[in-house]
Write the structure tokens for this entry.
Amino acid sequence: MVKEVGKEYTFTLWDGKVIVRPKLDMKYLYIEVTSRCNLKCEMCFKQYWEDKEGDMDWDLFLKILDDAEEFPELRMIYFGGIGEPSVHPRFMDMVREVKRRGFALGMSTNGTLLTDKMLREISELGVELVYFSMDTVPTAQNAITLGHIAAAVTADKIRKLVKYREETGTHKPSIGVEVVVTKENYMELPDLARYLLDLGVDSMLVSNLLPLTEEQTKDIVYDGSVDMKPILDELYKIAHSGLYIKLPYFELKTERQCDFDENNVAVVRWDGEVAPCYRFLHTYYEYIFGRKKKVNAYSFGNVREKSLAEIWTSEKYTWFRFTMKNYMYPSCTDCPLVDACDFVKTTDIDCWGNEPSCADCLWSRRIVQCPIPQYNFGKFY
């Protein structure tokens, strides 16, 4: 049962009033345990943001876990954000502590730093979900490039984790792979899906590239420049063989659905700042169909100063979630005035007065995707 907090906020909405009673109904808590990474992928936010790097300190991490216990509907703690979790010097201590407290645990990783000992322990501890990053099929012909070397290493880590979970007999963790689609690799998607199926992977999450430089805008496949239908038809057939494949949209549609908001997600940055999603975790520039936009980091509070429950049920965060969940914000992406409007230059505020602004967000258009775990048939995907 969702825990009531005894608060009530009244908001003016056009000619009426809306009464919102916040609840402790967070379902997924994402923790960016570090913003550092051992790789330098060109398509990653880290290469272009304005923020300093850092690791979450141990006492802050423990406080976040203490605060998380106040949320009765919390399904999972997820080590995510825009860093590589295993870079943190106490990464395995963090894994052990989350499982010791009885939380379900998921994580995103490139896998390259996970040793055999770590992989075995991750399985023995019963970690529920691990998503690896891989954008290509590693082969002998292409192994000389950096990206394919990393893919080969990641594939080897996946193979070992599959072995260790079979030895435990629990089928934990569920193993997923995140793939970013570009003009360079889109034709390879069916081969990659078949390769992952043979590896023993459970799910494949496909996301489109969010350009962070003007040069990267030439690599997107959702602007009508590529016919994705033959590729998608093949992927649908492979999905019937047992690989769960979550696909994005490959064209702009009217429908909007934010997985972060629909699934009641909060993201805690390495320094304790609480953001509503990955997009507002750091400050950087993005390109929306070729149009440059500055995304400014946005926080509803810092868990060093307030409890997670206080931040979650604060007036501003409550109204933000209500507004987003009911999609009461404009659509800048296909607005006829977009080229003459100053509101679209940053995410600070939109023409309806919402701040921060989600009106240009490609996540809500389901063009860009991140791992928001779903629980089906006894497994997380």
Observations:
- The chain has nine helices and 15 strands.
- Residues 146-168 form the longest helix (23 residues).
